[in-house]
Amino acid sequence: MFDYNYPDQRGHFGEFGGIYVGETLMPALIEAAAAFEKYIIDKSFLAEFNSLLKHYVGRPTPVYHAGRLSEHIGGAQIYLKREDLAHSGAHKINNTVGQTLLAKYMGKNRVIAETGAGQHGVATATTAALMGMECKVFMGVEDIERQQPNVQRMGLLGATVVPVSSGTGTLKDAMNEAMRYWVEAVEDTFYVIGTVAGPHPYPVMVREFQKIIGIEARTQIKELIGRLPDVLVACVGGGSNAMGLFYPFIGDEVEMIGVEAAGEGIETGRHAAPLCKGTVGVLHGSKSYLLQDEDGQIKHAYSVSAGLDYPGVGPEHSLLKELGRVRYVPVTDDEAIEAFKMLSRFEGIIPALESSHALASALKEARSRSKDEVILVNLSGRGDKDLAHALAIIGKTTK
Length: 399
Fold this sequence. Notes:
The protein is globular and about 55 Å long. The strands form 4 sheets. Strands 3, 4, 9, 10, 11, 14 and 15 form a 7-stranded mixed sheet that branches. The chain has a 4-stranded parallel sheet with strand order 7-6-5-8, sandwiched between helices. A two-stranded antiparallel ribbon has the order 1-2. With 399 residues, the chain is of the alpha/beta class. It contains 16 helices and 15 strands. Helix 5 links the parallel strand 5 and strand 6. The mean pLDDT is 95. It is 45% helix and 19% strand.
C-alpha cells in the first residue's frame, strides 16, 4: 500500500502547493477554504451534488473496450473512461457543478472562470444557468479564435465572454485577468478555477469534485475484466482529469502515466510540458513545476490543444512526480493528431485534442505490452470543439 495523505492543513503537497497571493485575495481564499471544509462533509450539500451528477451530468459515464483499435495495435487491450459523454462534453462539468453549488451555498450571485479550450467555460456557463447565477468567462483572444463553437455556446448559455489580449492571449493570460477581476469583485463573486492548480484550496477542491471519475472507473473495470487495470493514462495540462482518475488508485498496484503536450517537440522549446522539461517556481498562487527562464520569467507554452497550452501544472502532480508514483511523458502535436484520426476511424469516437495526447501515449504503451494487459485511458472530452482546427491541420499534412 502506497502511504499517501496530502495536502496538509496549509494546502501543501510536500514542498508544492500553498498560497502565494497578494493580501487582497487572502480573505476570499480563507472564506472559500472554510466553506469547502464545511460543505464537503455536509449531508445536504453532498446529496444535492451527487443528485446533480446522476440526473443532470449523466453519471456514471461508461467504461468502453476499444476492441477494434486494440486489435489493430496488436498489444495490450485499451479501455476508455468516457468522460466525453458527460453533459456539456467533458469531465469539466463535475468540478463546475461542485464549485457553482458551493458558491450558491455561500450566498454568492456571480461566478467567474477562465478557459483555454472553452470546455471549462462552457461547463461553468452551464451550471451558472442551471443555478440562476451571473457568469463571466475570461478567455485569451488566441483561444477565442481556435475555439469559436465553445465561445458561441457560452453566449447562448447566458455567459459574458471577456476577451484577454495580454501576453500570448491564451489560458495563462486569461487566468491572470480573472484573478485581477476577482480582487475587485470578491464580495459577491466566486472564482470557479477549472483545474487542480491555483492557490489552496483549489487543488484539493477540484480533486475532490473530480475523483468521481476514478471511483467509478475502479468499480466498472473490475466488473468488466475481474481485476484492476495494469496502467492508467490521462493527459495533463493543469491536470484535473488526470487527478480525478488517478487519486482513487494511488494506493493500488497500478501504473500511472500522465501525458504532457510536447508540441513541436521537447527539444524545440515549443511545448507545454513543465513536468518533463520545467523547473520549480510559483505561478497563479501556488508552487509547482512550470516553464520559466533563468530569471523566473514565465515562458510561453505551446500546444496544438488549447486545453493543454499552459506553462504550469497542479502542485499534486509535482509531488507525484517527485515521489515516483506517476510517470510523466511527452506527446507531440503530430502524435496526438494521429491518435485523433485513429480513434475516429476505428471506434467511431472523435476525441478532444487533449484526450488525443493521452490516447497517443496509450497506443505506444500498448504496442510494447502483451494482449493480456489492460490500459485504461481517460477520454476527458469530445472533439466537436476541435474539429475545424484539427481538420485544417490534417488537410495541410495530407496535401
